[in-house]
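## tool: complex_structure
## caller: assistant
## args:
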Amino acid sequence: MNLGLITPVFIIGILSATIRLATPILLTALGEVFTERSGILNLGLEGIMLMGALTGFLGAYWSGGNLWLGLLFALVTGIVFGLLMGFMSITAKVNQVVAGLGITILGTGLSTLFYRLAFGLRSQPPTIKIFPDIPIPLLSKIPGLGPILFTQNIMVYASLILTPIAWIILYRTSFGLAVRAVGESPDAVDTRGISVSRIRYLAIIIGGGLAGLGGAYLSIGNLGIFWTQMTAGSGFIAIAVVVFSRWDPFRSLVGALVFGFASALQLSLQTLKAPVPSELLLMLPYVITILVLIGVSRRAEFPAAFAVPYHRGEEK
Amino acid sequence: MATEIEQSTKPRYSFKHLWDQVFPALISIVIAVVIGGLLLLVNGRDPLAAYASLWSGAFGSFSRFTETLVRTTPFLILAISVSVSFRCEVWNIGAEGQFMLGAILSTWVALSFASLPIYLLFPLTFIAAFIGGAFWSGIAGALKAYLNANEVITTSMLNYIAIYLTAFLVNGPMKDPQGFNFPQSSLIESTLELPHLFPGTRLNVGFLIALALVLFAIFFWRSGLGFRTEIVGASRRVAKYAGLNVPRTILFVSILTGGLAGIAGWGEIFGIQYRLIQNIATGWGNLAIVIALLGELHPVGMVVSAFLFASMVVGGDAMQRNSGVPFALVDVIQGIVILLVLSRSYFFKRSPE
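## result:
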C-alpha cells in the first residue's frame, strides 16, 4: 500500500467524490422522505432510478447531448413509475412491499430491454458528455473547501439546495403538514375534508420524480454512460438512509454523505493499492448500510400509518 | 380481533377455488406476454417471430425440453424457499445471495474434504449448503426479529455482498490453480456429481430433489409448525395473543428459507456446474419471487409457475441467440406479471366468499 499517495490533494479528492457519490442517494432519499411521511413505503425506488438513468441517457443521447432534455425525460419517467406505485398502493391497496419489488423488477427489465433494443450489444458503449463542473466564483478559491463544495456540477448544487427546500416544504407549508398528518392519522385528515389519496399521490409523485432524477445523475450527471443495473442497490440504500434520517431532509443529507464517503473511500483504497482485494472493498457500502440499519432500526419511530392502505370508515 | 383470528385460521390455499386462482394467473401471463409483444412491435421487431423462437427454444426438441426441466429445478426450490418467508410475511428477497452461500460452502466442503469416503462427504456437502444459505438468511432474520431492521434492505444488501464474496473467492482463495487464470474453483470429484436422468442431457437427480421438496412443503404447511408460521404471517398481534414467540418464528422461517435456497445452490453446483463460478444465479432471486407469487405461494402452484418461467428463460436465451431480441424481454414479462398478480383482486373482483 502506497501511503505516500495520501496527500492533501488526495484527501480533498476523496471528500469531493463523497459529495458526488452522495448526490443520487440524496435526491432519491429526499423524495422518499415525502413518500414515507405520507405513509407509503416505495421499495420500487431501485427500479425507478434505473428507468431514470436510462431515459435520462436516451434523452440526452438522441438530442445530441441536450442534458436538460435528458433530465426532463428522467423526471417524467420517475413520475410515471411513481404513479404506478401509487396506483398499486393507494388505489388497488395491495401489499406495498411486494408492489415495490414488482416495480423494481419491472424497471430493471424495461431499462435493460430498451437499452439493448436501442443500442444492441456493443463492445464500446455509447457515451455522452456529462454536466460540467461549475466553479463558484470566489468560493471555489477557498483552500480545501473550494474544490470539495464549490467545484461541482449543477445537479450536485441543485440537490444540496433542495435539502433545505424539502425541509421548508415539509415543516413550514400546509402541504407538508398534510403529508405528515396523512402518514400519522389519515382518519383525522379525511374528517377535515382533505383527500388522503390526493396527498399520498402527490407525495409519491415527488418521490418518483426525484428517484428518476437521482438515477439520471448516475448516467448523465456523473458517468456519461448507461449500463444495465448501474444503480447497484442505490435505491435500497436510499431507503436505508431515510430510516436513518428518521424522515428528515437534513439528516438524509448526513446519511447520504456517509454512503458517499463509503463509496469514495472504497474507490480510493483501490487506487492506493490497499492490501485488501478489490472485491472485499466493493462490499463496503453494503456492509455499512446493514450496520447503519442495525444502529437505527430499533429506535426508529415509523409514521403511524406506515405501509397501511387507507380505507375510509374502516372499523378498528 | 375475532375476524383476524378467523382469517388466520382459515386455510388460505385450497383446491376448491382452484379455477378462481388459476384464471387470474393465466390472464396475467397472457397480458404480460401481449404487452411484451407490443413493446417489441413499437421497436420495430417482429413479436410473433420472437415468441416462436422462444417456444422452440424451450420445447423444440426432447433435449430442449430437458433443458427447461434443468432450469425448473433451481427455480422451483428457490420459489419454495421464498414462499416459506412470504407466507410468514417476512419479505426476504435474498434468495440469490443465499443460493450463492450454499454453493460456496458446499463446494468448499467438497474440495477441502475430498479424501473423506463418499457416503460421508456427499451428505456433508448437502448439509453445508443448507448451513451456508441458512446463515446468510439468518443474519437478516435475526436483525428483523430482534432489532426490527427492514429485511428487504438487509437481504438486498446481503445479495450484493454475496456476489462480491463469490468474486473474491474464485479470484483468490478458491481459485483453481490449474484453471488458466479463469475465475473459477477446481472441479469437484466426479463421484460427487449428481447422476443424470437421461444420457446425453443435463437433467439430473436434482430435479427429483426439487419435487421431493414440493412434498416436504405440502407436509410442512399441514404440520403444527407450518400452521403456527402462517398465524404469525396472518397477524403478529394474534400470534402474540396466542402465545407464539413471534421473533423466534421470524428467525426460524429465515433459516428455513435460506437453507432451502442453499440447497438450490448445491443442486446447481453438484448437478450442473461441478465447480464454483460467478454469476450462476444472476436475477434468480427476483425470478423466485415472481414464481412464488404467481403460484399463490402454494407448492403445487409453484411447480406450474416455475416450469412456465423456466421455459421462458430457456426459450428467452434461444430467442436472444436466434432472433436477436434481448433476453430482457423475459425480465419485463416478470415485472408485469408480478404487478398484475398483485392487483388481481382489484381487476378481477371476485364474489364475496
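## assistant note: Residues 3-124+140-297 of chain A form a domain with the ABC transporter involved in vitamin B12 uptake, BtuC fold (CATH 1.10.3470). The first helix of chain A runs from residue 8 to 37. Handing back to user.
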